[in-house]
Write a structure and sequence with these properties.
Layout (H helix, E strand, L loop, with lengths): L5 H11 L4 H8 L3 H8 L7 H10 L10
Length: 66
Amino acid sequence: MEDIPLGKRIAQRRKELGYSQEQLARLLCISHKTVSSWECGRGCPSLSFLLHLSKILELESIDLFL
């Protein structure tokens, strides 16, 4: 698997599944600005979000980092 930064991996998978940033944010009960900051590399999800995020993106938690 390619070495893709976490934010780009989240954006790529979100788009593959047809979610907008707003839709993903609603599923996580956060703002779309937070999702945007993750995807732009200005922040990253806390550990408390990773399990839920990986389920929504239909990935194993570790796959977010590969």
